[in-house]
């Protein structure tokens, strides 16, 4: 199995750095092939702009979607973008590992998403009609692949619990798990979250790395989060609202889970 | 009144660029002083790393929080960071304007938050005790100031409605409004969201700019989102969970609104 680990932490000698190395070795020992996109080590350019299309006319008005689509179709994308897209095509499983900074992913990883997720590749794919609103949310270029977040937080488990002050972790991660991963087609596994990282000593590292190891050992057998597919009948089109008979009289992120 | 507009869009000749100019002039005509942090124009460095502390020892292990705090306290922060902090101190109102990219802010703005929100400035402030868990969520360096998001989306209003496939816009913005703005003390005004931007022609621009203008005219009279203050008795400390008698048997983002 081919595993791509997209990793965003500035310090190799950190808990995140150690867990990245642990994960790589664990997966390799299980017979998988691993590529790591270590965004800080790669000095990844985090800022989407007109330079992402190497054929952009100087001084032309820049449109993020149109320019991205033109460059993707013409093969004139910046080489770093095309290379990461190749890794995504190659991968059977994509793991994104990062510390939760201000309740989301670090900017360098957000910029990886924005630039690598080209129009025509990760969005703007498929036809729009009365019964199909593009290949997205369960369909798309990355369908058939699995993805999982590995996230560390300084805050406590309870701060991210159902009634915790930061908000429930599943809700905080919904824009990523549903909006970034499920959108272009990934089956999204439940996240692996490690809390209160400031308090992890050597014994603690044994514990947290073993817990991560178990998740890595079961990547292919773990049931994905049952997000509803957009074009399978649950949503009205083009309003894209959940049909009244499903999760009736409810609202919010979790109505987009098929079990609810 | 001093207004800081933090603006993140790569193309000045865009809807966002026009709205930024409109907002600046509208506020100035009302007698306010406006500063704009135009992150793309400034070529803002979006990537938090060891270089943010100009006095960092070469080769030392980097800890994002500790190094940030040390640099903030010693006055050795990178000059671009200190300059933006000065703007925040100067401002009575902060407006953040950006297109919603992958259901969050653009990476360049996320990187502004990560770098400007130093430890000791925007977090890691105040004492921790049995009744007070730091000056945050309603207290902190930026208390007494107001903040508002101005957000554009390509998607339709209904896609971001209570049962829309993208998730409700208020929930998608919660990590920013509660986690980034309320956290260091801002009173957060309801967001101003402009949907379906691909369909806005000249008449449409009149309409959307006037609607924005009304929000700018009422910055000081608009009631903030009633997020609950962390240290005012609603939460157990240190678990930081909402007390059982408040919004009983419920979970999710909206229990952190005082009205619920």
Verbal overview:
Two copies of one chain form a homodimer. Chain A has 260 residues and is an alpha/beta fold. Chain A has one domain (2-225): 3-Layer(aba) Sandwich (Rossmann fold). Helices cover 32% and strands 12% of the residues of chain A. Chain A has seven helices and six strands, in the order βαβααβαβαββαα. The first copy, chain A, has helices at residues 15-29, 64-74, 79-90, 107-116, 169-182, 202-217, 230-234, and strands at residues 2-7, 33-38, 93-99, 146-152, 187-188, 192-194. In chain A, strands 1, 2, 3, 4, 5 and 6 form a six-stranded parallel beta sheet that branches. In chain A, strand 3 (93-99), helix 4 (107-116) and strand 4 (146-152) form a beta-alpha-beta unit. In chain A, helix 1 (15-29) packs across helix 6. The longest helix of chain A has 16 residues, at 202-217. The first copy, chain A, is globular and about 55 Å long. Chains A and B meet through helix 4 and helix 5 of A and helix 4 and helix 5 of B.
């Amino acid at each position: 199995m081919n595993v791509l680990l997209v990793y965003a932490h500035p310090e190799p000698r950190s808990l995140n750095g150690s867990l990245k190395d642990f994960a790589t070795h664990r997966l390799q020992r299980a017979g998988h092939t691993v590529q790591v996109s270590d965004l800080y080590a790669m000095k990844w350019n985090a800022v989407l702009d007109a330079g992402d299309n190497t054929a952009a006319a100087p001084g032309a008005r820049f449109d993020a979607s149109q320019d991205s689509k033109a460059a993707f179709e013409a093969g004139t994308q910046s080489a770093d973008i095309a290379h990461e897209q190749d890794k995504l095509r190659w991968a059977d499983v994509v793991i994104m590992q990062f510390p939760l900074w201000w309740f989301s992913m670090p900017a360098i990883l957000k910029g990886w998403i924005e630039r690598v997720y080209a129009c025509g590749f990760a969005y703007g794919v498929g036809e729009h009609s009365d019964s199909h609103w593009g290949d997205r949310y369960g369909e798309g270029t990355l369908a058939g692949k699995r993805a999982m977040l590995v996230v560390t937080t300084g805050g406590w488990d309870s701060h991210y619990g159902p009634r915790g002050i930061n908000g429930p972790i599943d809700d905080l991660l919904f824009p990523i798990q549903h909006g970034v991963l499920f959108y272009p087609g990934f089956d999204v596994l439940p996240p692996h979250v490690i809390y209160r990282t400031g308090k992890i000593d050597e014994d603690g590292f044994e514990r947290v790395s073993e817990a991560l190891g178990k998740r890595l050992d079961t990547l292919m057998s773990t049931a994905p989060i049952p997000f509803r597919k957009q074009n399978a009948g649950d949503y009205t089109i083009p309003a894209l609202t959940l049909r009244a008979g499903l999760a009736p009289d409810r609202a919010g992120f979790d109505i987009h889970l098929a079990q609810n």
